[in-house]
Design goal:
Layout: H1 3-32, H2 35-49, H3 61-82, H4 89-96, H5 107-122, H6 126-137, H7 142-149, H8 153-173
Helix pairs in contact: 1-2, 1-3, 2-3, 5-8, 6-7, 6-8, 7-8
């Protein structure tokens, strides 16, 4: 990248930031639901905008920026899906509603149940996983989980109902 094109990219980024940073933040916030994640993703989108080789070719700056943001968002979601979900084995008892408690199960059955639960949790959308773990694993109330996740209490309640239903279905699908 030549010095002239680097200056052009910086000028483009400054203009786009001034004119469209609010729109970008709203776009990302609607898709991730957390202001901190939206801030991080917006920052990454602007860093990538600074790497533009020929800023003169960018005819629709907002569309170009949102295109970059969609790629950044896609990578973010992929990373979230690849992260291993950590949970307490006590959730298995509550969610799977087994009649025989873990104290009567053999170690092999407990391990199998944990593996099935892990697979089932991974099938949930990231926001459902988050809400379920905040409430069930961390023992938060719906109001506390709403504050921690940046969601409304109503949305937390809705996600809990949906997560439980999806988890039950997923557990049936991953049964041995």
């Amino acid at each position: 990248m030549s010095l002239g094109s680097a200056k052009d990219a910086v000028g483009l980024a400054e203009t786009v930031f001034r004119d469209h940073s609010g729109a970008l933040h709203r776009y990302l916030l609607r898709r991730v639901g957390h202001a901190e994640d939206a801030d991080d993703l917006a920052q990454e989108a602007f860093v990538r905008l600074l790497r533009v080789r020929d800023a003169d070719l960018v005819r629709a700056p907002l569309a170009y920026l949102l295109g970059i943001a969609s790629h950044v968002l896609s990578e973010f979601r992929q990373r979230q899906q690849n992260e291993r979900v950590v949970f307490d084995s006590g959730i298995a008892d509550v969610l799977y509603e087994r009649a025989d408690g873990p104290d009567r199960q053999g170690m092999a059955e407990q391990t199998e149940l944990r593996e099935r639960l892990d697979k089932a949790l991974k099938r949930l959308p990231p926001t459902h996983q988050l809400v379920l773990l905040l409430v069930k694993r961390d023992g938060m109330s719906y109001a506390e989980a709403a504050r921690a996740s940046g969601l409304s209490v109503h949305t937390v309640e809705k996600y809990m109902v949906e997560a439980r239903g999806r988890l039950r279905l997923a557990l049936r699908e991953v049964e041995p």
